[in-house]
Write a structure and sequence with these properties.
Helices cover 31% and strands 17% of the residues. It is α/β, with parallel strands linked by helices. The protein has a domain of 223 residues: P-loop containing nucleotide triphosphate hydrolases (Rossmann fold). The strands form 2 sheets. An 8-stranded mixed sheet has the order 6-7-8-3-9-10-12-11, with helices on both faces. It has a 4-stranded antiparallel sheet with strand order 2-1-4-5, covered by helices on one side. Strand 9 and strand 10 form a beta hairpin. Helix 4 packs across helix 5, helix 4 runs parallel beside helix 6 and helix 6 runs parallel beside helix 7. The longest helix is centred in the middle third of the chain and has 18 residues. The protein binds adenosine-5'-diphosphate and magnesium ion. Adenosine-5'-diphosphate binds next to strand 2 and helix 1.
Length: 372
């Protein structure tokens, strides 16, 4: 699968849309979501996720991209309440998910599932596939008899392209791609509305990645599922996502429709990520922007715009605002042709890109930033 070869992949689901024209609350909404990890031994806290607000519509894939350590997994886990947020709120299916407890929380959890990067680590090696996939069915009491449970698991496996002969086998007897299919079957078992997929294809061979991504797109088209698709691979993101959120040091720095992000990135960090995507066509090779050094530590994020020490635009302009004033995630410049257009009823698909940069949209020259 190559982003260049398939700019408009046929497999991508139609995406969010509401032909009725009525506005509905989004499926999921986060408001000011923040996670600070306290550390033992007097070490300073880690600001893993800071003030994240976004929404996901029904049937939509929102991709979350960014370098390793920027807070993607923490954000996914905080949304699911696998870890509790330090601040902020999650609204899901019209409820304040953050405030739910007991049976109400359990019921809402059915509708929010997760798929992990490494299916070998996330599937219990001592359990048969039947019992692995049946787990959510048992936890949420979704089948009355053993026979009914088996029938449901068989149907779930069929949906992800795994035959019934798998029922009595163990995870190690399958390939990485098959194990990820089994992970998806388990996630689907409780009829979720949203699946948080944390780097679900990153550990797989490229050819297998395409199969799993296609399967996810098919499942979305059939069931109207939504995904928060966490990935550092922009080619996969371009293929599957409807919108993209770019994360840097715990904050969203750019958020917009996938075409906008790929064709008119506003934030220099997004430009740098895109310029690192390999392309076989030299004519299409973008300006390569070097990201010097590692991301700074989330223990002590830089002042102002936390990207400024690595930013090629700051390297050129040396504008003190970048050092002193944190840029807000707001609409910076209207995309050509979108001003004054009536909405189609789907707020997310129509939304312009938001960027947290004082110089949004300005393409840096080739010069890499030099140290202060
Ligand atoms: N339980 C934890 N305790 C302390 N720090 C953590 C914990 N989990 C993650 N972190 C830190 O939070 C930051 C974000 O991590 P993570 O969400 O895993 O990033 P990503 O998934 O984008 O690679 C990293 O600096 C990581 O070391
Ligand atoms: Mg991660």
């Amino acid at each position: 699968m190559s982003a260049e070869a398939a700019p408009t992949p046929p497999a991508k689901a139609r995406g969010p849309g509401d032909s009725s024209g009525k506005t509905r609350a989004p499926l999921l909404e986060t408001r000011g979501l923040t996670k600070i990890f306290a550390q033992r031994g007097g070490r300073p806290p880690v600001q893993a996720v800071t003030d994240v607000s976004f929404s996901i519509e029904r049937g939509e894939t929102l991709a979350l991209v960014g370098e390793s350590g920027c807070g993607k997994s923490t954000l996914g886990r905080v949304i699911l309440r696998l870890i509790e947020p330090t601040a902020g709120q999650v609204r899901f299916e019209g409820q304040d998910f953050s405030a739910l407890a007991g049976p109400a929380l359990r019921a809402a959890r059915k509708r929010l599932q997760i798929v992990f990067q490494d299916p070998m680590a996330s599937l219990n090696p001592r359990m048969r596939v039947l019992d692995i996939v049946a787990e959510p069915i048992v936890v949420h009491d979704l089948a009355k008899t053993r026979e009914e449970r088996r029938t449901r698991v068989t149907a779930l496996l069929e949906r992800v392209g795994i035959g019934a002969d798998a029922l009595t086998r163990y995870p190690h007897e399958f390939s990485g791609g098959q194990r990820q299919r089994i992970g998806l079957a388990r996630a689907l078992a409780s009829d979720p509305a949203l699946i948080v997929a944390d780097e679900p294809v990153s550990a797989l061979d490229v050819s297998v990645q395409a199969q799993i991504v296609n399967l996810m797109a098919d499942l979305q088209a059939q069931q109207g599922l939504s995904y928060l698709f966490i990935s550092h691979d922009l080619r996969v993101v371009r293929y599957l996502a409807h919108r993209v959120a770019v994360m840097y040091l715990g904050r969203i720095v750019e958020l917009g429709p996938v075409q906008e992000i790929f064709s008119r990135p506003q934030h220099p960090y997004t430009m740098a990520l895109l310029s690192a995507v390999p392309t076989r066509d030299p004519a299409k090779q973008r300006l390569r922007i070097l990201l010097e050094g590692d991301p700074p530590s989330p223990i002590a994020p830089p002042s102002g715009c936390s990207f400024h020490p690595r930013c090629p635009v700051y390297a050129e302009k040396r504008d003190q605002r970048c050092r002193t004033e944190r840029p807000l995630l707001i609409r910076r410049s209207p995309a050509p042709g979108t001003l004054g257009k009536p909405g189609s009823g789907s707020p997310a698909a129509d939304a312009p890109s938001l960027a947290a940069c004082h110089f949004a949209g300005q393409t840096p020259s080739l010069r890499a930033p030099s140290p202060d």
